[in-house]
Amino acid sequence: MRETPAPPPRSASRRSGAAALLAAGLALAAGFAACGPSSSLAGPPAGKQTKPEKVEKMKTVLSKSGHDITPLSREEVARLAKKLDPESYRVTQKSGTEAPFCGNLLDNKKEGTYLCVVCGLPLFSSEHKFDSGTGWPSFFREFDPAHVTRVTDTSHGMKRVEINCARCGAHLGHVFEDGPAPTGERHCLNSASLTFLENGAPVPPESRPVKAETAYFAAGCFWGVQHWFSRGPGVLEATSGYMQGRTEKPTYRQVCEGDTGHAETVKVVYDANRITYRRLVEAFFSMHDPTQLNRQGPDVGDQYRSGIWTVDAGQEKVAREILEGLAARKEYGEKRIVTLVEPAKTFWPAEEYHQEYLAKNGAACHVTNPW
Ligand SMILES: [Zn+2]
Fold first, then answer.
1. How far is the CA of 116 from the centre of ligand 1 (A)?
2. Which end of the chain is more exposed for a tag (fewer CB within 10 A), N or C?
3. Structural domain spans, the chain
4. Closest Cα partner for 43 from 91, 104, 112, 109?
């Protein structure tokens, strides 16, 4: 059914949706007479749709503090930016600057963490806040240096270093070299770019360090299964491989022709703070046909069997509950669900050319988008 393709060069197309990289806006040095709405407010354009990006999903990037800082797609940033008030939208998405001595966080003395107002990534901590006298909230270092990116800004006839959220690209402010010890840096922030989270308050899922857990699913040819799992919200990585067989380190050829007993399986590493195992199992059932025995679509053979390989009793309980619920509700009519639920054996990653196969080759597959 399939040919063995030559691995094509990886697409290097995707970049952060950082609208804030456009250095526009007002100079920090400019004087402002009063607080209140600015005449240059630019809210989200009404009814304007962002063109979907047809690009490869980036590998997950984790910071030293354990946060997922993989740049968000332009679409995702646009979705998040819709919830912003006009001032936060103008500052973060149009590189605006709020009037000095006007931001709500300038005089905030409470202990806690300053989060990106757009994506919730922790950016600064009250431990590093100081009174710079400039009229803008100031910090001498970042919460985690990897959470804040720097770019040269030559607007307004000045050469400054603009700072942005590493995950969503939101414009935050600028960093100057006239801060206090120990860094000598002054991160000059707009309150409108931040949300304050006081110590002890519940931490939103998007602001927590990643809680990585693993799940394994077999739903036929792994090309499409890996493709859709990798695009799940909160999925950190999806890898194609072979599982539940009788031999070690199987090759694709051995699995297809050698009767090794392996099933084409996708290993899904996910952030349990952002997506549940239950949601993954539901996605698994909705992306393929669990009533087909030892085949999916055009692919026939027991390597294409439908299966959930569980890593503990908790996963097994959830998987069986969902399977039995689908059967009881007759979701597939009179057809029997043949999905196996078994304890996971060793996962053997497939050859590199099978990884992100659809993104590399643009081929279609039997599975449907479950998200
Ligand atoms: Zn952000």
1. 5
2. N
3. 19-24+59-205, 211-361
4. 91
Q: What pTM was estimated for this model as a whole?
A: 0.67
- Known catalytic residues? 188, 221
Tell me if residue 298 falls in helix, strand or coil: coil
- CATH superfamily entry for domain 211-361: Peptide methionine sulphoxide reductase MsrA (3.30.1060.10)
pLDDT tens track, the chain, 371 positions: 444 443 333 233 322 333 222 222 223 333 333 454 333 333 333 333 333 334 445 678 999 999 999 999 999 999 999 999 999 999 999 999 999 999 999 999 999 999 999 999 999 999 999 999 999 999 999 999 999 999 999 988 999 999 999 999 999 999 999 999 999 999 999 999 999 999 999 999 999 999 999 999 999 888 889 999 998 988 999 999 999 999 999 999 998 887 899 999 999 999 998 899 999 999 999 999 999 898 887 888 889 999 999 999 999 999 999 999 999 999 999 999 999 999 999 999 999 888 888 878 777 677 888 88
**Is the preceding peptide bond at 182 cis, omega within 30 degrees of 0?**
yes
How many residues would you count in the chain?
A: 371
Does CATH number 2.40.50.1020 belong to domain 19-24+59-205? no
Q: How far is the CA of 149 from the centre of ligand 1 (A)?
A: 11
Name 343's bridge partners.
Answer: 310
